[in-house]
Amino acid sequence: MSMELKDVFQIMHEFDCSASSSLELCIGGDSLKLKKDEAVSDAQQYQTGKTSAQSSEKNKTEENAAMHAIRSPLVGIFYAADGEGKEPFVKAGSHVKKGDTLCMIEAMKMMSNVKAEKDCIILEVLVKDKDTVDYDRPLFRIEDV
């Protein structure tokens, strides 16, 4: 058994998010050694003002959102409304039906509508207008109807 590139990237991401400072992994004939520069990590933590408790709280919020969330189907720029100065498609408390447009995401100058896959209530909008969103990022926290 050997590691595939996607597995290496996943391990690197998980390691980067962890509190561990080093990791050594051997699978079959492949080995991977990762080590964080603690001086840089401390500087980054000071610069952002984030403590591990704050990071942990953010992760819990994202995990809760993941339980019942509508996620981004692609990487791009999130638009809450159809244009400047217009009302957002949805906001917290909105009741939506399957097929209703929730937002738009611009990718490579193409606009894609994100539609509700089922009837639900929007509990929270998790991103701000014109934020860049990654694939699979939670956009809305929802409750099924």
Report on this model:
Helices cover 28% and strands 34% of the residues. With 145 residues, it is of the alpha+beta class. It has 2 domains: 5-49, no CATH class; 68-144, RNA polymerase II/Efflux pump adaptor protein, barrel-sandwich hybrid domain (OB fold (Dihydrolipoamide Acetyltransferase, E2P), Beta Barrel), CATH 2.40.50.100. The strands form 3 sheets. A 4-stranded antiparallel β-sheet has the order 3-10-8-5, with helices on one face. A hairpin with a 2-residue loop joins strand 6 and strand 7 (110-115).
What is this entry, summarized?
By secondary structure, this protein is an alpha+beta fold.
List the helices and strands and how they pair.
Layout: H1 5-17, E1 22-27, E2 30-35, H2 38-48, H3 52-67, E3 69-71, E4 76-79, E5 95-96, E6 101-107, E7 110-115, E8 120-125, E9 132-133, E10 138-144
Question: Features of this protein?
Answer:
28% helix, OB fold (Dihydrolipoamide Acetyltransferase, E2P), elongated, 145 residues, 2 domains, 10 strands
Query: What is the helix fraction of residues, given as a range?
Result: 25-40%
Q: What is the terminal separation in angstroms? A: 45 Å
SSE sequence, one letter per element: HEEHHEEEEEEEE
Strand order of the largest sheet: 3-10-8-5
- Helical region count? 3
Q: What is the overall shape?
A: elongated
Q: Per DSSP, what share of the residues sits in E-state strands of 2 or more residues?
A: 25-35%
Which fold name fills CATH's third level, the topology of the largest domain? OB fold (Dihydrolipoamide Acetyltransferase, E2P)
Tell me which oligomeric state these chains represent: single chain
- Helical/strand content category: alpha+beta
User: What are the segments in which pLDDT stays under 50 over at least 5 consecutive residues?
Assistant: 39-51
Q: Write the CATH homologous superfamily of the largest domain.
A: RNA polymerase II/Efflux pump adaptor protein, barrel-sandwich hybrid domain
Rg calculated over all Cα atoms:
19 Å
Q: Could you say what the CATH architecture of the largest domain is?
A: Beta Barrel
